[in-house]
Amino acid sequence: MSEITEELLDSIHATQACLKDVRELAGKLKHLSLTEIESLLLEFLEQGEDQAVSRLLQACAFNKVKLDPEILCQSLGVCEDITDSAPCFAMQEATVAPQLLEMAVSEELAWERQAYCATLAAELTVKFDLDHAPVMRVLRKIDRKPLAPEVRVLIANSMIMLQMNPEEMEFELPHILTLSKLKLEDLLPERRPHAVIGGTYTVRRAVPKLGRNEPCHCGSGRKYKNAAWRRIRSCSVMPRGTQVRPGAKSRVIRAWSMIPR
Q1: What are the DSSP calls for 118-135, one per residue?
Q2: How many angstroms separate the CA atoms of 154 and 182, rounded?
Q3: pTM for the structure as a whole
Q4: What is the C-alpha separation between 53 and 51, in angstroms, rounded?
Q5: Engineering a disulfide at 104: which of 68, 117, 184, 218 sits with its beta carbon 3.0 to 4.6 angstroms away?
Q6: pLDDT for 108-156, tens place per residue?
Q7: CA distances (Å), 98 to each of 135, 138, 184, 222, in order?
Q8: What contacts 163, CB < 8 A, 6 or more positions away?
Q9: Contacting residues for 149 by C-beta, under 8 A, at least 6 apart
């Protein structure tokens, strides 16, 4: 009998990208078998549910679940953020590297995701001492594309890694970024980010909202309501006592009275 219930599906969809929520979801997934988890992941992949795929991958990384390499590679084209799957690749074997290279040359993926797949393939190639030539060919092919600066850094980072001597790799130089060694705490905040709700959309706040009586962030030592808040309000709200242009009110009344009823 399957342990995948509607309540569990609702929990996956309600889980936010923070450690607290992922930790709670991981506890609810412990009773599922590997087959059930992979079938659930495949269902999310087929439906294109990027957030559900990412939260499930992060919960699997928390529980140290080793997923099927083919299914894990498929998730790279759907997951919400390309780094969401990074901790899962720390548990993979050398056989996943060729599959990552196939994803890196897939025209169905965006260039950024192709670069990410090639980067992971380079890391695992070095880790398991595989042939560097196939990975280097793919990296050079991707590097010829008009990539964003941060993506080009990933490619350059991977090329440096492949060209380093084994003795140099032992020291794990600080300028070499290894995505497959990233942990969940490196990628996710502990709690949900603060949000300000307006209209039908939600805007995430980078820092908590200041109360009117809290110390102002401007460094003056005064309360927020007596410093920045007063200045911001004066710029965005019409002050009381503002004079209306003479005759404007009478013209509005006259125009309103002429509308047929």
Answers
A1: HHHHHHHHHHTT--SHHH
A2: 14
A3: 0.70
A4: 5
A5: 117
A6: 899 999 999 999 999 999 989 999 999 999 999 999 999 999 899 999 9
A7: 9, 11, 25, 61
A8: none
A9: none
Strands 195-198 and 201-204 come out as: antiparallel
* Token couple for 77: 């084209």
Torsion over CA of 20, 24, 27 and 32, rounded to 10 degrees? Answer: -120
DSSP state string for the chain: -----HHHHHHHHH--SSHHHHHHHHHHHTTS-HHHHHHHHHHHHHHT-HHHHHHHHHHHHHTT----HHHHHHGGGTSSSTTTTGGGGGG--TTHHHHHHHHHT-TTS-HHHHHHHHHHHHHHHHHTT--SHHHHHHHHHHHTS---HHHHHHHHHHHHHHHS-HHHHTT--TT---GGG--HHHHS-SSPPPEEEETTEEEE-SSPPPPTTSBPTTSSSSBGGGTHHHHHHHHHSPPTTPPPPTTHHHHHHHHHHTS--
Length of the chain: 261
